[in-house]
Amino acid sequence: MKNINRVIFASGSGTSRAPMATAIFHAIAHDRPIICEARGLIVQFPEPLNQKVEAVLISNGCKLSDYSSKQLMDSDFSENTLVITMEESQRQKILSEYTNATEENTRLLNELVGDELEVMDPYGGSVQTYGLCYEVLKASIEKLMRVLEA
Fold it and tell me: Which residues form the Phosphotyrosine protein phosphatase I domain (predicted)?
């Protein structure tokens, strides 16, 4: 996937898993410059990062400064952009609602990296639940780096 120069993580309101994945992506060293952003699928108005996500990121040495959620738009899709979702239902929503979304440029994270399970939604859980989500995302994103550089 050497032609990919932009990755967008997309999920729910864009305040938890997508920005967490983006922060992890930025924290992992990679061989070539890849733009990484987070988007929400249902963003009525910009919202800050979920406080539990922020706490987990800080405790793991990651930072996402001045973050606010943004709606995924058709203009986000381009020839060299890969949109990655956390759940198959989110992927299907994108494929059905966005003209520029295709099977090739819209992928499910766990399938892309060969993991068995989707990334669970920690919403409403404890900080420990968000921490577990972080650990799962970190392992998957480390594998994603190898996929992108192959």
Answer: 5-147
